[in-house]
């Protein structure tokens, strides 16, 4: 009814415009009157432009009343065209969906927002979109890369694309994890075209990797970096020691540690690259370049010790401010560069010059923990719980005078 009322109001304006011109109606006046009747509708398709032309001809030859009727028909057409598109979007959502909390938005609303303009991150496991719902809630939606196979295993999905039941089972486990340093998975679903979507809270400060290795790095002082390291350690320790069965992340890196508005660490992407299989038979993947543990090529599967190595690399990033793989490091990765530079030049050539020197003692202690975690022999690495305890000890001995 609001559409009809608006059209009537514009029709009145158009009628007055024509009456004031008597019989001397110019082409520009007709177009202006037509625009008033249609209320600023944007004609993006050829069909819409044809309707606009038809409206102009009606107004020119027969007067404003037929034009009003055609504009009402146009409003009705646009309304049903929009609702039809909404139905099509809703119909894309497959019945395989899980919600772990009460949803504050609908799946159709999410699907409508998955466009390139809303992309805020890309990685080997998929794209991340920033979605603002109609009720004002901002969320992050990750669209996972689809898994291809030789033959379609289900007739109701797109050819060469299948649902990964092991992955879905893993997300069921992750959706029930509640820890302040683990990114909460609110919802996951699989669309009819086999797109798997994960819904998380939106983190305004992005990832640690992006923040640490760009122009914003100067904003990360040592207390903030230490807070992030301790929070991430607590989250990974929870996965290893407090979940039953224990969960191995397999892809710990600075880009998978997100930061909320208060720079609290949230570990994310648990299993989205390799699949967290509840049966314990999930596939094994290589970590990102620079994070690969030495035993990876010789082991039949990655375990918690590999996560500890990866986290040790993250601590070295926080201490040095350098990327795990960097042209300035030459052919060495960050772990090898730190060890060789310590031997040849000393600790002052390793620490990030942007850090205040009054924190040097604490920074060196964290450096030692990072080196312990990146020992080439897995058995020499501490457990993740022990890493957390070591960092807590550093925090308790922090100097209050800096």
What would you say this structure looks like, in words?
- The chain is an alpha+beta fold and 402 residues long.
- It folds into 3 domains: 87 residues, no CATH class; 108 residues, Phosphorylase Kinase, domain 1, CATH 3.30.200.20; 189 residues, Transferase(Phosphotransferase) domain 1 (Transferase(Phosphotransferase), domain 1), CATH 1.10.510.
- The protein is built from 12 helices and 8 strands.
- Strands 1-5-6-4-3-2 form a 6-stranded antiparallel beta sheet. It has a two-stranded antiparallel ribbon with strand order 7-8.
- The termini are far apart.
- Overall 3D form: elongated
Q: What oligomeric state best describes the polypeptide chains here?
A: single chain
Main sheet overview: 6 strands, antiparallel
Low-confidence stretches: 1-46, 84-95, 148-166, 273-286
| CATH architecture assignment name of the largest domain | Orthogonal Bundle
How far is it from the N-terminal to the C-terminal residue, by CA?
66 Å
The CATH class designation of the largest domain is Mainly Alpha
Number of domains: 3
CATH topology of the largest domain: Transferase(Phosphotransferase), domain 1
Q: Strands of the biggest beta sheet: in what spatial order?
A: 1-5-6-4-3-2
According to CATH, the homologous superfamily of the largest domain is Transferase(Phosphotransferase) domain 1
Beta-strand residue fraction: 5-15%
Helix content: 40-55%
Cα gyration radius (Å): 29 Å
Counting DSSP H or I runs of 4 or more residues, the number of helices is 12
Structural class: alpha+beta
Number-wise, the strands total 8
Q: Look at the structure and give the mean pLDDT.
A: 74
Order of helices and strands: HHHHEHEEEHEEHHEEHHHH
């Amino acid at each position: 009814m609001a559409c009809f009322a608006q059209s009537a109001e514009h029709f009145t304006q158009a009628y007055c415009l024509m009456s004031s011109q008597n019989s001397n109606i110019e082409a520009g006046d007709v177009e202006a009157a037509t625009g008033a009747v249609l209320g600023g509708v944007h004609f993006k398709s050829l069909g819409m432009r044809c309707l606009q032309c038809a409206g102009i001809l009606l107004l020119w030859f027969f007067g404003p009343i037929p034009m009003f009727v055609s504009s009402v028909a146009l409003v009705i057409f646009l309304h049903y065209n929009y609702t039809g598109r909404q139905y099509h979007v809703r119909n894309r959502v497959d019945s395989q969906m899980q919600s772990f909390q009460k949803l504050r938005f609908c799946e159709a609303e999410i699907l409508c927002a998955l466009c390139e303009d809303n992309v805020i991150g890309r990685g080997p496991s998929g794209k991340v979109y920033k979605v603002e719902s109609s009720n004002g809630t901002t969320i992050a939606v990750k669209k996972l890369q689809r898994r291809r196979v030789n033959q379609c295993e289900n007739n109701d999905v797109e050819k060469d694309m299948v649902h990964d039941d092991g992955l879905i089972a893993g997300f069921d486990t992750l959706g029930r994890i509640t820890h302040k340093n683990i990114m909460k998975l609110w919802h996951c679903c699989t669309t009819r075209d086999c797109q798997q979507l994960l819904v998380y809270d939106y983190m305004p400060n992005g990832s640690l990797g992006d923040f640490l290795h760009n122009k914003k790095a100067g904003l990360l002082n040592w207390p903030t970096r230490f807070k992030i390291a301790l929070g991430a350690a607590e989250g990974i320790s929870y996965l290893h020691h407090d979940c039953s069965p224990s969960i191995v992340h397999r892809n710990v890196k600075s880009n998978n540690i997100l930061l909320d508005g208060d720079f609290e660490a949230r570990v994310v992407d648990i299993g989205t690259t390799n699949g967290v299989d509840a049966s314990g038979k999930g596939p094994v993947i290589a970590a990102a370049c620079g994070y690969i543990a030495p035993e990876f090529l010789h082991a039949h599967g990655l375990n918690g010790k590999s996560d500890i190595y990866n986290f040790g690399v993250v601590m070295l990033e926080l201490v040095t401010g350098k990327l795990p793989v960097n042209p300035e490091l030459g052919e060495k990765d960050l772990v090898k560069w730190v060890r060789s530079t310590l031997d040849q030049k000393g600790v002052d050539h390793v620490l990030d010059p942007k850090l205040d020197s009054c924190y040097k003692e604490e920074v060196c202690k964290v450096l030692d923990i990072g080196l312990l975690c990146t020992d080439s022999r897995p058995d020499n690495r501490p457990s993740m719980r022990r890493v957390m305890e070591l960092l807590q000890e550093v925090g308790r001995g922090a100097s209050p005078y800096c």
